[in-house]
Amino acid sequence: MSITRERLSPEESRSAALEAARRLLIEAGPQAVTLKAVAAEIGKTHANLLHHFGSAAGLQSALAHHIGERVTAGIAEAVRRARQGEADAGEIVARTFDAFDREGAGALAAWMILSGNRDALNPILESIHHLVDQLGQGHEDRPVHETTLWLVLAALGDSLLGEAMAGALDLPRDRARDLARRHLLTAAGLAEDGRSG
């Protein structure tokens, strides 16, 4: 779906390009995320995108940063709501799994790893590290880093192989999310209904 050409500020043009790149990544896979395809999506020229990102690698790095910010913002909000009693562990798991599936972090990670461009993942990893450091403040008695490790790895694996694996095992598609929610409740010392146990 191409957007008609309109005059955008440099920030708006860059933001539109990153959203188009994320959409292409999710809908058509990494091979679809080219400067030419992104430019066509937003009604700009290839040269215009080169001006904003410098190269295809620059676009990939900016996309990783963009997705990293979206991922951590959603997870941080879910954790904040859970700590205030407005949400439960299920929302934290859902936000994390959605970040890697629907938001495109899983596809981006696989793309960067398989293409040998692991450095492009640094913005996502740095965003998660910063988030975990923030979440751990005042909660030093909880295994925030370890919990984040297994939850992110579970969400990443589910985004890449979850549907096929659940199907092969004749399990419901969302079973991995259910298991992660139960594990998070157990790790937090909560009962199944979310109350202290």
From TrEMBL:
Domain spans labelled HTH tetR-type: 11-71
Keyword DNA-binding applies: yes
DNA-binding region: 34-53
Keywords: DNA-binding
Pfam families membership: TetR_N
Source taxon at top rank: Bacteria
Keyword field contains Ion transport: no
Cited SUPFAM superfamilies: Homeodomain-like
InterPro entries: Homeodomain-like_sf, HTH-type_TetR-like_transc_reg, HTH_TetR
GO molecular function: DNA-binding transcription factor activity; transcription cis-regulatory region binding
Protein name: TetR family transcriptional regulator
